Amino acid sequence: MPPRSHRPCTARPLPLGAARTPPSPHGPFRRRYGGRGGTDPAPRAQARRGAEAGPMRGLARPALRARWCRSLWALPARAAANAASSPPPHPPPLAGASPGALNPFDRRLKRKQKNWAALQAEPAKCDYLREEVGGRIADRVFDITRTFPLALDVGSGRGYIAQHLTKETVEKLIQVDIAENALKNAIESEIPTIKVVADEEFLPFKEDTFDLVVSSLSLHWVNDLPKAFKEIHQVLKPDGVFIGAMFGGDTLYELRCSLQLAELEREGGFSPHVSPFTAVADLGHLLSRAGFNTLTVDTDEIQVNYPGLFEVMEDLQGMGESNCSWNRKPLLHRETMLAAAAIYQEMYGNSNGSVPATFQIYYMIGWKYHESQAKPAQRGSATVSFGDLAKIEGLLKRGKK
């Protein structure tokens, strides 16, 4: 992304917990990326893909035939079962339409936020994080030495994973998202795709349909994460694989602490302005309970440097990542915002005047069981004791002599 000169904000940008209102025009600003060497992530992702997938080409999406996608939809029995607990999938069912302990997020508001972000004049200027994570998920797909005839992208947005994939790896792709504007303004890909407006918790597809399911930075907004994992497991074919990424618990800890301290000082209490995230310790258990095996869960951090707190919140708004928790605070006072910006700079500011924003990413890989997969040996069948490992070094030295 080309650098932009910073101009102070003329209007107060919306915090994570503020209500949606049309934004005031803010001046451009300069952004420097601080993740993995402090460079722009886009060239990094392109260089990493080049060795395996070759240069990406912006080809026009070919016309799709209805025959190969007509058999994907859920059977009448399953569709009736879903309809009994939720509205019909078109328009998509929005779980969490009313507040409650089991529904922490307002899914209707999240749909509006993502639709608003996709309709901006330059939606790509805030897509740097999604494109970077999408490229890293594509790298994990390339690590599996097979071709996937049919794949599903859950919470695809504007197609941040599809643009990094090739026809040699994925032959056909279904993109699913809750925001119709994001699908309409999707990035072109060389893979034949079809777009479906649906909720991540209510996938309208038959069982054992897809060879691959991917998801990037979308599942942290679902109200029922165990149900979403079960839905993904259900639509996978046996020996199919799920590769996903979602924000972790340490995401935006600088912003969270700064806002809490500012509210305590100016208002005598604080409200949550950053949505709750899943702990990495729980992620493997949730995947296992959904039926996945041969699990792999790892974490990574991407740090992006901004001119100040207001620019952090402006870009979060442009990503469609504003807070949509039911218990969010409707507004923040101007004095509190200015105090939070000063605290952010004082506690976390860099020597060059910028402030960091940390995004913790959980990457997960899970397979659906198939009898051809490798199985663990039976308990007690080992022929070598772990205690003999200490003797290996001595045996190797004897062998050299």
Strand order of the largest sheet: 1-7-8-6-5-2-3-4
Oligomer: single chain
Category by helix and strand content: alpha/beta
Describe the biggest sheet? 8 strands, mixed
H/I helix tally: 12
Instruction: Name the average pLDDT.
Output: 76
Order of helices and strands: EHHHHHEEHEEHEHHEHHEH
Structure, explained:
- This protein starts with 31 loop residues before the first strand and ends with a helix.
- Helices cover 33% and strands 17% of the residues.
- With 401 residues, it is α/β, with parallel strands linked by helices.
- The chain has helices at 41-53, 67-70, 76-85, 107-118, 128-142, 180-184, 225-235, 253-267, 280-290, 309-319, 334-348, 392-400, and strands spanning 32-33, 148-154, 170-177, 193-197, 210-216, 236-247, 293-306, 355-367.
- The protein has an 8-stranded mixed beta sheet with strand order 1-7-8-6-5-2-3-4, sandwiched between helices.
- It is globular.
- Residues 1-70 and 75-93 have low confidence and may be disordered.
- The longest helix is centred in the middle third of the chain and has 15 residues, at 128-142.
- The protein is built from 12 helices and 8 strands.
